[in-house]
Protein: TolC family type I secretion outer membrane protein
Amino acid sequence: MIIRLSLPVLALLLSPSVAATNLLDVVHTAEVKNARFAALRTTRMLADQSPDIARAALLPQIVLTASSSTVNLQQDPITFAPGVPPAGGDTAYDSTDWGGRVVQPLFNWGAFKQYQAAQLQRSQEQARADANAQDLYFNIASAYFDTLRAQDALSIARSRLASLAKRLEEAQAKYAAGFVSQVDILEQESQRDAAANQVLSAEDQLNTQRENLNALVGEPIAEVATLRDDIPVLLPTPNSVDAWGRLAVEQNPDLLASLIAIEQSKVNQSALKTGYLPQVNFFASYNERRLEGGDNPSVALNSGTTDVVGIEARWEIFSGGATHARVKQAGLQTTLAKQNHESDAKLIENQARALFMTSKTDAYRIKAKQRSLRSAEVAYRAIEAGYSVGTHSVVDLMSSETKVNNARVELSNARYDYVMNCFRLYKIIGLLNESAIVRINGWLSASPQSATDRVP
Structure:
């Protein structure tokens, strides 16, 4: 999964304000505005540097040195023979040194293994970045559809309040004419007041969900595209609980990261075992020293150049048992990584199987809720007709209307549960990326609709 700046994202960078209307636009805006996406991109770039740093231990090392100093030399005079001036004594001179050294590793198995471990570390961090990106995509999708769910709930609540207010007006007119009792009026007033409270609660919930979405996106979203009423409610493919369990174990980015962690731990253990092996380097050095001033003959004798070419070896025979302990510790870390992976794999497999079964149930549930709504509406119309001729009471009418309202809410929730469980299925098998978002984005309508308009 690669987070990249696509053409829509570049357009956002160049445009002072872009109104995000559908889910894909919202995601593209968040990729630019949300600092967590920027942090993911930085994390990937940081991970790319680890192998380069480790590889440096296998490449030539070049060191240049230079120094300039004034030296005060104090020596006892040395007499070589009678009549020969003594050598030594106090003198001062200027010293200039410069040189260079090149070292090329010939055999450093530990550095090579550390380079392999750094490559695995990069792959592990990339896999974890994929998992974090999926979390961000899911959180944005969840906030988006929670906003739509809250919009539908508010639309249904307002529709019911308007219907009850209109019916109360009609009942009050009938009460003035003596056709209904005061009990009917009080009952309908109670229902209207309860509906008004539901509207207030729904408005508060919608405001909360909008703020959550705005916070994730990084800028206010004025209007969001609504969910079409003809979304494809299909059973998951492949239609096999075992297949989804296998897909999750094979493709889940968290599990991939833990598998890489096992391999990295093995390589680290091999790298520590190289503490028993020697290191062999080729080296070449050049040094030039110039000593000037002073009358001591030994000073002049120390001036000159030195060229050295050779092979050096270093073999640590005994380090107090530290190498053995480190190797043992690395072995235990490998065992622990395997145990954690097995535990996580079983958990994720079970989650994938459960999500598959839930998604299948969601598809059937939507169809069942559609039938329940139609039945409730038919029953309501029959009771409404009976109420108008006096064969049903206002309690019967209000109860039937409540059933219709509840059926609308349940159908709306079933549709959003189905959509979000689709996202969860994509996420657990490691496929919650822009392609998945584009697919579900096709289920949205560009024009706003009320929840009651979408009821079959």
